[in-house]
Amino acid sequence: MARYITKRLLKAFLIFFVSITITFFIIRFMPSNPVDLLIDPKMGPEVQEAMMEEFGLDKTKGEQYIIFLKQLLQGNLGTSFKSREPVSQVIMQKLPWTLLLLFIVVILSLAVGIPIGVYSAKHRGKFSDKLINIVVMVGISVFVPFLAFLFLYLFSYYFKLLPTGGAYTPPPAKGIRYVIDVLKHAILPSLTLFTANVASILMYTRNSMIDVLEEDYIRTAYSKGVKENKVIKVHALKNAMIPTITVTGLMMGSMVGGAVMTESIFSWPGIGRLIYDSVSALDYPVLQGSFIILALSVIIMNIITDLIIAWIDPRIKLEG
Amino acid sequence: MQNNRTFFQSFIRNPMGMIGFFGVLLIVLLGIFAPTIAAYPKGYGTEILVAPGSGMLFGTDNLGLNVFAEVVWGARSSLYVSAIAVLVAAVIGLPAGLISGYKKGKIGSVIDGLIDIFLTLPVLPLMIVIAAIVGSSIINVAVVIGLFSWPSLAKVTRNATLRISEMQYIEAAKCLGIPSYRIIFKHILINVAGPVLVNLTLIMATAVLSESGLSFLGLGDPTTWSWGAILKKAWDASAVIDTPNPWWWWLWPSVFIMFYVISFNLLGTGINEILNPKSRE
């Protein structure tokens, strides 16, 4: 197991290194000049030069990259062009909100998608399964802003039950009332992202369950006289879970993408909203920092899912 | 049995594939004949925010423009963007998948590693930044989407190639001294065409989701009508949560996005079922 974990961590580190390098060069080789947006053109050239120097923009791309890596090792992501605060500080204020949203969505999607997927596989080819398949087809084709609009129209405009945006009603309340307030604001964004993601989890659970149910050892279990429910829960589910967990890990990247749109619509104060706001200001360090943190979160999620899979299926860690 | 039927014969017997095909056909016709169906919406209309039905099929927006005309012209740009995105994805993804699957060894694992990295990265945020900075002309947006759509295609191609390149006729081709590039781009490419085709229809679908997303976030081409751009205008005018509520303004473009995506997904599923009869229920 130790060898498997070491190998997996090395791979994760490599992915992380390549992704930060790609993002650094993509962002730095863009044609726009951040100084134009940062500094009033009426200012003198000396002031502009001083600011270039302050942001390290006067050095060559190679030197900027070395500085960037060194600072990254120290946990320093640079200074925001716009707010002049350390990027790590800006991001850390936003990260918990995004993680909260993603956490709710992952848990909900697994809790709903897996049982329905198993049910659908059990009733393969019957009416209920066909109906679920149609719903899944619509679900994987969903456009996130459309969902958000529908929910807003229904719950905020028509029934006036839920708030239209933000994460809490200002000024923030204290104690339990704050928690309730935040949860109330989280309902629509979570519901939107959940609906957009649950279909894939359901589909993968269903398909892998169907594959597993055709295996010889399942037939053996049945012929031993084991009840259907027990066969599915004890024998089949564990193996059927492997593709579902893998997919959940892989979906993190696209979920983060959906979160950008969801957060922008619901003014949810997370990293997605931060990215959108930073784009219009060409705030390179914040954009870069947001990517690094998002990529890191996704990579960590992937390690976790890989470890869970290795724990479920011992063959994987032996091969590793 | 299966071999007695041509692909076409099986296809017209596949309900999912046929529904998808006609959906795609409808969008394509809308896109091609947009100028004949509706005049290009520009300037100002006389009646603002008219509900659907009263002479205006889909109603009008806050400038008095016909939402139906906007949606029809939106079909045109959506098709254009997804077609270019698919082209870009194919130009990168196909060779990457074919070469890494055929060569295996070092080149194979390097390309495979790259595919994994790009599959892991949160792609939409990356597209947002690039689209924001390269400038939002429709062609730029299409190319950016294509640049990040190749990994799934490459993966599918690679897996299929790995399987095909073990086959004896490839072995035979090697023994005959046929150069690698001809084996790859002639003998293998034809035999991985099935899964590649399925993946390309899926990329058509996701490309329009990305395009609509980028336009909705204000990163699309401001001079072109696209479904995401209509949604952005409606959202900016608070058409979703304000009273009176012009729901037709945001509902129709959304319905068309979903229709487009579902049609391409169904088409892909249909083709897949015909190529792998085992996956059929």
Question: Brief overview, please?
Answer:
Chain A: The chain crosses the membrane at residues 12-30, 97-119, 131-155, 186-204, 240-266, 286-312. The complex is a heterodimer of chains A (320) and B (281). Chain A is mainly alpha-helical.
Could you outline the blueprint of secondary structure elements for this entry?
The complex is a heterodimer of chains A (320) and B (281).
Chain A lengths: L1 H27 L5 H5 L6 H10 L6 H13 L13 H36 L4 H14 L3 H15 L16 H39 L2 H8 L4 H39 L4 H11 L2 H29 L1 H6 L1
Helix pairs in contact in A: 1-12, 5-6, 5-8, 5-10, 5-12, 6-8, 7-8, 8-10, 9-10, 10-11, 10-12, 11-12
Chain B lengths: L6 H6 L2 H18 L1 H4 L29 H37 L1 H16 L2 H12 L3 H10 L2 H15 L3 H8 L4 H12 L1 H24 L10 H10 L10 H29 L6
Protein name (chain B): ABC transporter permease
Family (chain B): Belongs to the binding-protein-dependent transport system permease family.
Membrane topology (chain B): Multi-pass membrane protein
Name the structural class of chain B: mainly alpha
Count of helical segments of chain A?
A: 13
Task: Give the SSE order of chain B as H and E letters.
Answer: HHHHHHHHHHHHH
The parts of chain A where pLDDT drops under 50 for at least 5 residues are: none
The CATH topology of one domain in chain A is given as MetI-like fold
Mean pLDDT of chain A, as a whole number? 85
Tell me about the largest β-sheet of chain B: none
Task: Please identify, by name, the CATH architecture of chain B.
Answer: Orthogonal Bundle
How helical, in percent, are the residues of chain A?
over 70%
Biggest β-sheet of chain A, characterized?
Answer: none
Q: CATH homologous superfamily of chain B, by name? A: MetI-like
Which strand-content bin applies to the residues of chain B?
A: under 5%
N-end to C-end Cα span of chain A: 9 Å
Q: What is the CA-atom radius of gyration of chain B, in angstroms?
A: 22 Å
What form of chain A results from the Cα inertia axes? globular
Beta content of chain A comes to under 5%
Largest interface, chains and sizes = A-B, 56 and 44 residues
InterPro entries (chain B): BP-dependent_transpt_permease (IPR050366), MetI-like (IPR000515), MetI-like_sf (IPR035906), OppC_N (IPR025966)
Main location (chain B): membrane
Membrane topology (chain B): Multi-pass membrane protein
Protein name (chain B): ABC transporter permease
